[in-house]
TrEMBL record:
Species per Swiss-Prot/TrEMBL record: Candidula unifasciata
Name of the protein: 17-beta-hydroxysteroid dehydrogenase 14
GO molecular function terms noted in the UniProt entry: estradiol 17-beta-dehydrogenase [NAD(P)+] activity
Coiled-coil boundaries: none
SUPFAM superfamilies: NAD(P)-binding Rossmann-fold domains
GO BP annotation list: steroid catabolic process
Pfam family for this entry, one: adh_short_C2
Length: 271
């Protein structure tokens, strides 16, 4: 059934999605465009971004505009905000999604420079986009949605630097929600667990046993499957369009991965 104008849940709202050319960001972008939004998205992969821009603009009913951007560079991040407002005259929603997950390894094998560089992307990138977007969001009483990852709450083996950056986003979200409430700007987050993305598939193919790795990934959820990028997008749409009395909250998009007991013993007396 074709969408009608009245059924578009975020029609003509102006949205920015960072890291929108693939993975979870792409799912968020697709859902907002499908619901009538005007979306500016950025990514470091220019070819992928241009391809996505062309394909989604053909499908509509909303529209999108791609900007090449390294979110860790303040001038580039600021340009995304300014170009959006210059193009569409306002900003209603910022979805901070761009980030990086380094290979798994113990803290001994991370350098301080590794951690510093990851903070530039995963924390300061979010800080910068929020800083420059908020003057415009205050005018529209808009909202911010941050991707904080489930590991911010449950931790992850071999990912001390990544988990730390995502924990910072949880705290940033709550602090901003407090500060921006007087402007009627809402700030929320979502925490994806095992979502089927090109990165997850690549990791599985690089493992010693693809089928076993996929099964392990599915079995980590109570629902027995991976989440989809579209499901992440729908959660973001809910936070932007429907959750108008919610601020400072987080929604897990995890299939229940954080619940119940499981085999967690890390101690092997034979070692």
């Amino acid at each position: 059934m074709a969408e009608t104008a009245g059924s578009l849940r975020y029609r003509d709202q102006v949205v920015i999605v960072t890291g929108g050319a693939s993975g979870i960001g792409l799912g968020v972008l697709q859902v907002f465009v499908h619901n009538g939004s005007k979306v500016v998205f950025c990514d470091i992969d220019e070819k992928a971004g241009r391809d996505v821009e062309t394909n989604l603009n053909v499908k509509g009913p909303g529209e999108c505009k791609f900007i090449s951007c390294d979110i860790s560079k303040e001038d580039q991040a600021r340009n995304v905000i300014e170009t959006t407002v210059q193009t569409y005259g306002k900003l209603d929603c910022l979805v901070n999604n761009a980030g990086f997950h380094p290979p798994h390894r113990p803290i001994d094998d991370f350098s301080t420079d590794d951690f510093r560089a990851l903070n530039e992307i995963n924390v300061l990138g979010y800080f910068t986009t929020c800083k420059y977007a908020l003057p415009h969001l205050r005018k529209t009483q808009g909202n911010i949605i941050n991707n904080c990852s489930l590991v911010a709450y449950i931790g992850q083996s071999g990912a001390v630097t990544y988990a730390a950056t995502k924990g910072a986003i949880v705290s940033m979200t709550k602090a901003l929600a407090i500060d921006e409430a007087k402007y009627r700007v809402r700030v929320n987050s979502f925490a994806p667990g095992n979502i089927w993305t090109p990165l997850w598939e690549r990791c599985a193919r690089e493992s010693s046993n693809y089928d076993k790795t996929i099964k392990t990934g599915k079995d980590a959820q109570l629902l027995g499957r991976f989440g989809t990028i579209e499901e992440c997008g729908l959660v973001c749409l809910f936070l932007a369009a429907d959750a108008t009395f919610c601020t400072g909250i987080n929604i897990n998009v995890s299939g229940g991965a954080e619940l119940d007991y499981g085999f967690k013993n890390k101690f092997d007396p034979s070692e």
